[in-house]
């Protein structure tokens, strides 16, 4: 019976180190080899790569071990290429050039206003305010594409790969930065007619409310002079769409509670009127649209440019009676 004892001599320290550092001849190895060849010496290559001379020498030795041939003809004064080294250098240089081109392309894409921007917004702001502004932004930067998701749902912004979120919130998600872009008022809009004397009069009106519950609720109104008044109402109709509520209001079906920017076009056209002028309905989340992005270092130039564009356009409107504007290019 033959012995199973391995009688091969133990590996030397150098052989053990080479075995540990044995690498696949992948793009990283070929790029390193090309840079060593271009540098002309291990020391110069080490300085360019931010490595020690010994680390570069070990990696080159691992590449030679992988191909099974010497790549460099070393003397005490110079470093030349063997025939195998020249053949591999041509292939490695092509890999290096492709890697450099990919890096430059990525930097240009990251620093230029082109490519996809994924945006989410509450539907009312997205439809009535954001869409005209996106069109203006795209005219200035035709290389930018938009993917828009208009929803009231609270999305996981990172998981959904969102670049900019326009939300009504006083507590942005952790690690996201909020920038106010527009204040708004919630008013009571119905077909033109005499103004209601005060919020208490809403109790006698068919009320149209956003949401899914028709039970009685208490509304706390604020007047421009600082006065406050509460009223308990029972909605005549609830819906999850402000545009649907305003459609019913235009047909004379009741008074819709809606943000001013949703009703503004109807007010200007004479189809609707603010039935409680001077009064507004504050909400717990705050009457302000916030633009949410990742911190500046991670947000990307396109996201920052869009927020700046939207903020400038809305600031230029000067009033809460919103008309989408186009900022100076």
Helix content, binned percent = 25-40%
Note the overall shape: rod-shaped
- The rounded Rg comes to 33 Å
From the 3D structure, determine the CATH topology of the largest domain: Arc Repressor Mutant, subunit A
Can you tell me the residue ranges where pLDDT is under 50 for at least 5 consecutive residues? 1-6, 18-23
By secondary-structure content and strand pairing, the structural class works out as alpha/beta
For the record, the CATH class of the largest domain is Mainly Alpha
Label the CATH architecture of the largest domain.
Orthogonal Bundle
Enumerate the strands of the largest sheet in spatial order, edge to edge or round the barrel. 4-3-5-15-6
Through-space gap between termini? 89 Å
DSSP, total strands: 15
Structurally, the number of domains stands at: 3
Overall pLDDT: 83
**Main sheet properties:** 5 strands, mixed
Order of helices and strands: HHHHEEHEHEEEEEEEEHEHEEEHH
User: CATH-wise, what's the superfamily of the largest domain?
Assistant: Winged helix-like DNA-binding domain superfamily/Winged helix DNA-binding domain
- The number of helical runs is 10
What fraction of the residues are assigned to beta strands by DSSP? 15-25%
InterPro entries: LysR-type_TF_proteobact-type, LysR_HTH_N, LysR_subst-bd, WH-like_DNA-bd_sf, WH_DNA-bd_sf
GO molecular function, one term: sequence-specific DNA binding
Family: Belongs to the LysR transcriptional regulatory family.
Keywords: DNA-binding, Transcription, Transcription regulation
């Amino acid at each position: 019976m033959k012995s199973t004892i391995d009688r091969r001599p133990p590996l030397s320290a150098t052989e053990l180190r080479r075995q540990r550092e044995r690498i696949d001849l992948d793009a990283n190895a070929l790029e390193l080899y090309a840079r060593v060849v271009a540098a002309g010496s291990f020391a110069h290559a080490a300085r360019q790569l931010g490595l020690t001379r010994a680390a570069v020498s070990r990696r080159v030795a691992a590449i030679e071990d992988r191909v099974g041939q010497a790549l460099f003809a070393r003397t005490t004064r110079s470093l030349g290429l063997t025939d195998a080294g020249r053949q591999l250098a041509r292939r490695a240089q092509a890999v290096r050039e492709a890697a450099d081109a990919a890096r430059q392309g990525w930097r240009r894409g990251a620093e230029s206003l082109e490519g996809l921007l994924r945006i989410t917004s509450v539907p009312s702001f997205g439809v009535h305010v954001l869409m005209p502004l996106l069109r203006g932004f795209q005219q200035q930067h035709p290389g930018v594409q938009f993917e828009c998701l208009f929803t009231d749902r609270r999305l996981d912004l990172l998981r959904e790969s969102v670049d900019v979120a326009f939300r009504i919130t006083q507590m942005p998600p952790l690690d996201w930065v909020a920038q106010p872009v527009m204040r708004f008022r919630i008013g009571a809009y119905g077909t033109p007619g005499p103004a209601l004397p005060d919020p208490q009069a809403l109790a006698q009106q068919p009320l149209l409310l956003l949401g899914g519950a028709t039970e009685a609720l208490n509304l706390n109104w604020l007047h421009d002079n600082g006065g406050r008044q509460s009223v308990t109402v029972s909605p005549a109709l609830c819906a999850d769409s402000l545009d649907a509520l305003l459609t019913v209001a235009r047909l004379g079906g009741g008074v819709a509670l809606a943000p001013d920017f949703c009703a503004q076009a109807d007010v200007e056209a004479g189809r609707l009127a603010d039935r409680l002028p001077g009064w507004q309905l504050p909400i717990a989340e705050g009457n302000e649209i916030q633009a949410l992005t990742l911190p500046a270092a991670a947000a990307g130039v396109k996201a920052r440019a869009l927020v700046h564009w939207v903020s400038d356009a809305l600031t230029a409107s000067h009033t809460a009676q919103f008309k989408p504007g186009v900022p100076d290019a």
